[in-house]
Amino acid sequence: MTAAAIITGGAGALGQSIASRLGGDLEALLLVDVDQQTLAPVADSIGADHVAVDLASDQAPDILSAALDERGWIPRVLVNNAGVNRDARISRMSDEDFATVVRVDLLAPARLALALGPRMPDGGSIVNVASRAAFGNFGQANYVAAKAGLIGLTRSLAIQWAPRVRVNAIAPGLVDTPMTAGMPENVLSRLIDRVPAGRMAQPDEIAEAVAFLASRAASYVTGQVLVACGGRSIAP
User: Fold this and answer.
1) What CATH number is attached to the domain comprising 83?
2) Residues 36, 11: contact at Cβ < 8 Å?
3) Domain range for residue 24?
4) Residues assigned a catalytic role
5) SS3 track for 112-158
């Protein structure tokens, strides 16, 4: 059967970079995102297939499993990259905004991993895109909780599924994407000033790290979190 990589959040800047990088390593790519109109041209531009689905839906794992079956593909790599944020002070954060972020950023990756992990061949790999924010960020209690939970999920699954399937996470800091560009300039400038590397990461730099964790070059790496933050996590 054809070995495939599934990348969620595939229509975004980081998802596109990850898919483009993995396209040279695997026989097939399946990009997943919620908006068909945005997703389809992205997938076409890199020669990937695509499925538009709301990952917050209970049916999402079944939809993706069926999509793989229809194509005769077996999942060898799953990159749980999709995510949302709903930032606010915790005192002003609604239950709905808290739950939405946890549902998309933590529950959806868990569901997909549980649906696709058992279908992976020996040497299969799951890479969860967490965040340096898992260590704590002001105004992001929901996002921090979800990403910290994703790291915990990564480690738990790595123990349960070793040695057949490896499960790792990457925790990026600031990445140069449209979402980051939408931040107030003064806020973004202050954040960059706190990064020892002196800049944001480019999406292709994070994609290279994801590709390493997904590849057989990392065959002895599981249950780990690669923090790609330009040194921010160790800065004073």
Assistant:
1) 3.40.50.720
2) no
3) 2-229
4) 143
5) HHHHHHHHCCCCEEEEEECCHHHHCCCCCHHHHHHHHHHHHHHHHHH
* Cα–Cα separations (whole angstroms), residue 192 to 150, 176, 184, 202: 25, 11, 12, 13
Is 236 part of a structural domain of the chain? no
Domain assignment present for residue 235? The answer is: no
Alpha helices in the chain (DSSP H): 13-22, 36-45, 60-71, 95-102, 108-116, 141-161, 178-181, 185-193, 203-214
* Number of domains the chain is built from: 1
- Which amino acid does the sequence have at 202? Q
pLDDT in tens, 126-177: 999 999 988 887 878 889 999 999 999 999 999 999 999 999 999 999 999 9
- pTM for this model (two decimals): 0.94
**Spatial separation of the C-alpha atoms in residues 9 and 177, rounded to whole Å:** 13
In the DSSP assignment, the letter for residue 216 is G
Q: Give the amino acid at 137.
A: N
234 occurs within a structural domain: no
In angstroms, the CA 54 to CA 176 distance is 25
Q: What is the pLDDT of residues 85-133, one digit of tens each?
A: 777 788 887 888 889 999 999 999 999 999 999 999 999 999 999 999 8
